[in-house]
Amino acid sequence: MENNDIKTIQWFPGHMAKTRRAITANLKLVDAVAELIDARAPLSSRNPEIDTLTARKPRIVLLNKCDLADANATAAWVSYLKSENVTALAVDCKSGKGLNKLMPTLKATVLRELMEKRERSGMGGAPIRMMILGIPNVGKSSLINRLAGGKRAKVEDRPGVTRTKQWVKLQDNTELLDMPGVLWPKFEDQSAAIRLAFTGAISDDILDIETLAMKLLSYLAESYPQSLTERYKIEPDGGDDGLALLEKVGRKRGMVVSGGEINTERAAITVLDEFRSGKLGRITLELPPTKE
Ligand code: G4P
After folding, report:
1. What pLDDT digit, counting tens, does each position of 202-222 carry?
2. Phi and psi at residue 58, to the nearest 5°
3. How far apart are CA 191 and CA 3, in angstroms?
4. How far apart are the CA of 137 and the centre of ligand 1, in A?
5. Helical H runs in the chain?
6. Paired sense of beta strands 167-170 and 174-177, if any
7. Residues 6 or more apart whose Cβ sits within 8 Å of residue 56
8. Is the CB–ligand 1 distance for residue 64 below 6 Å?
């Protein structure tokens, strides 16, 4: 990808420090962390500091929005993460698909030692406390709502927890901190920032919307040409650059202004909206690294 034209994005150091402190304080209260990433861009949607931040806290990675991602690519990501000793599950927090496996998987893997220790010391009935972490828009609130259901039962405020923080009781003797940790996205890596902008996780403003749509179309023409053929009835030929593809989409959709020019801005908005809502099919933006 050409990244020269990307605008610099700022995340203020003071804000990061405050976020780090808040997450660290909350982590002391839980037994496990569920880290949400976007199944369409598992690397780009992962905060690079999460390993340090969560230190040795047992963690499960949830590849969310798997309904929008390429199923084969998601399976490849789950097995790649497994090979890196990371427990991962593909989920869809909008419909709830896959979430029934969350607690059983946690207990059988990363929390196994804790469960056994509790059992041995007669503490088998103690609740498992969990916290959700992830960058904005990755689906943290959707996950909490799904797990907690409509009837969020309030648990008592704990010492060290401010009044606004609440615990929600889930099934399986689990308590969830009703306040996810919001991590800053990966802005340092510009290709990652572009992928996040494709998904709508960060503002479109990092590039002008036409450039963003052109980059997405170039990627689709290369990796998922059938998505363009099926949705827009255009045949990307090898020589089409992003602009040519955007104009083809605009022409097919009748987005023509006086003089016969294509309204590429409207076409760009359409392409991005349709990608984000899954109308272009199930698409993954990055694949796991291949091992030697
Ligand atoms: P956040 O708390 O991490 O910021 O994310 P949030 O749950 O608010 O989710 C951000 C958007 O992603 C929401 O869409 C939500 O519905 C959608 N979403 C979350 N999980 C999934 C999933 O597994 N699959 C799909 N397809 N979408 C998911 P929105 O457009 O902002 O809101 P809404 O129109 O859905 O209400």
Report:
1. 876 777 899 999 999 999 999
2. -55, 135
3. 7
4. 6
5. 13-27, 50-54, 71-83, 102-108, 112-120, 140-148, 190-199, 209-223, 225-232, 242-252, 264-276
6. antiparallel
7. none
8. yes
C-beta separation of 244 from 217 below 8 A? no
Atom of ligand 1 nearest to the CA of 278: 26
Beta strands 167-170 and 59-64 are unpaired
- Residue found under tokens 């927090």: 93
Cα(79)–Cα(174) distance, integer angstroms: 27
Tens-place pLDDT, residues 9-54: 566 778 888 889 999 999 999 999 999 999 999 999 999 899 999 9
CB atoms within 10 A of CB 226: 11
Q: 217: closest CA among 266, 255, 267, 260?
A: 267
Q: Whose CA is nearest to atom 19 of ligand 1?
A: 139
Provide the 8-state DSSP code for 149. -
Report the separation in Å between the CA atom of 142 and the middle of ligand 1, taken as the mean of its atom positions: 6
Strands 181-182 and 128-134: parallel
